[in-house]
Design goal:
Shape: globular
Structural class: alpha/beta
InterPro entries: MBL_Glyoxalase_II, Metallo-B-lactamas, RibonucZ/Hydroxyglut_hydro
GO molecular function, one term: hydrolase activity
Pfam families: Lactamase_B (PF00753)
Keywords: Hydrolase, Metal-binding, Zinc
CATH architecture: 4-Layer Sandwich
Distance between the termini: 32 Å
Number of strands: 14
Oligomer: single chain
Helix content: 25-40%
Largest sheet: 6 strands, mixed
Cofactor: Zn(2+)
Number of helices: 6
CATH superfamily: Ribonuclease Z/Hydroxyacylglutathione hydrolase-like
Length: 211
């Protein structure tokens, strides 16, 4: 499995394209917020000869969903989220303009992801792990074979997701990290929703929020 990330929009949100030798791919958290960013994503997919087969959100805060409609319309794929984040997604139009995105177009999900479910594309299988706290319906996607997690805004390099937004809960987030992520092997690489990647082992040792 190959992982390509794009830091999009003013929040520097990491949009991920995952693909394998079959050329099938999934797009996770498309944050493209303007025509230039949409073109960057589309050009990569075309250059690599990829076929987009799934559209996934780790969670539905505005910076992670700005490109949902573009991806759904361009590639004809339904949006998939955890049901507990539907209210978070539905709230985005109420504040998008205030955040500087007056042209935001809502894309609603057609499928709900569940804890323990396997997301498949090509020859690749991702495990859905439920990790609430930053958002009530937050999930991460774990690829056991390559020891990679697409982690959204749960765990960052030397930091954790904020919990002061609606639906956030600090104690729940800490529990999610310790019981869901920290039970994975230390060698697993975490690809977060913002900033550089890290590993489970590094964060166990050095994350000041989790010592």
């Amino acid at each position: 499995m190959q992982i390509k990330s794009f830091p999009f929009n003013p929040f520097s949100e990491n949009t991920y394209v995952l693909y394998d030798v079959t050329k099938e791919c999934v797009i996770i958290d498309p944050g493209c917020s303007n025509a230039q960013e949409e073109k960057q994503l589309k050009d990569f997919i075309e250059t690599q000869g990829l076929k987009v087969v799934r559209l996934l959100n780790t969670h539905c805060h505005i910076d992670h969903v700005l490109g949902n409609k573009f991806v759904a319309d361009t590639y004809g794929v339904p949006l998939e989220i955890h049901e507990d984040d539907l209210a978070v997604l539905r709230a985005v139009p109420t504040y998008a303009a205030a955040y500087g995105f007056p042209m935001y177009a809502e894309q609603l999900p057609e499928k709900f992801l569940k804890e323990g479910e396997t997301v498949t594309f090509g020859e690749t299988k991702l495990e859905v792990i439920f990790t609430p706290g930053h958002a009530p319906g937050h999930v991460v996607f774990y690829h056991k074979d390559s020891q990679n997690v697409i982690g959204g805004d749960v765990l960052f390099q030397r930091s954790i997701g904020r919990t002061d937004l609606p639906g956030g809960n600090h104690a729940t987030l800490i529990q999610s990290i310790k019981t869901k992520l920290f039970t994975l092997p230390d060698t697993v690489t975490v690809h977060p929703g913002h900033g550089p990647s890290t590993t489970i082992g590094e964060e166990k040792k050095h994350n000041p929020f989790l010592t």
